[in-house]
What we know:
By secondary structure, the chain is of the alpha/beta class. The chain has ten helices and ten strands.
Amino acid sequence: xxxxxxxxxxxxxxxxxxxxxxxxxxxxxxxxxxxxxxxxxxxxxxxxxxxxxxxxxxxxxxxxxxxxxxxxxxxxxxxxxxxxxxxxxxxxxxxxxxxxxxxxxxxxxxxxxxxxxxxxxxxxxxxxxxxxxxxxxxxxxxxxxxxxxxxxxxxxxxxxxxxxxxxxxxxxxxxxxxxxxxxxxxxxxxxxxxxxxxxxxxxxxxxxxxxxxxxxxxxxxxxxxxxxxxxxx
Length: 233
């Protein structure tokens, strides 16, 4: 579904990713793990068109997307749940979700998708009229994920799922993700290495903008590199 080939990118004259390659197959959950500042979020921004590559290629469903504007990438079927959730605080839960369906033209289709999100995330149905800023951190993360799903993406990019959340809320968000993993392919960026690799089918470890090791979630959790660098073992 997604192929990143020898990607070099960054911000201005500052390079963050170096010759990075990875792939995501349909139906997978793939985790990108590594320490803060390793280049994980930069990778997602490049895939979704927020930043452009210095060189390299990004293919989605067999087509090059690395020179496309972000709104066209969304229309192709990629949704990006940004780091820090970035919900629209003054808008209601329902209004936030409708913002995620901006590429959908038919009002009836928007209502159908809204109802689907309320079935997957019942807490959002309960909070539908509340301003997003009044939700807990975990509820805001669920709202950000649901907003991304409103465009019916083929691939969902989730940046720093657990950022700023208490452990019990991280668990609740992972439980919510488990409900949708059979409906959408997921590329997950996460600092909590153990939780991410336990959840994912496969994973990639990024350090200083370069690929260190890849494999199944189980293989990476058994890797000495991962144990020593990220799990404190």
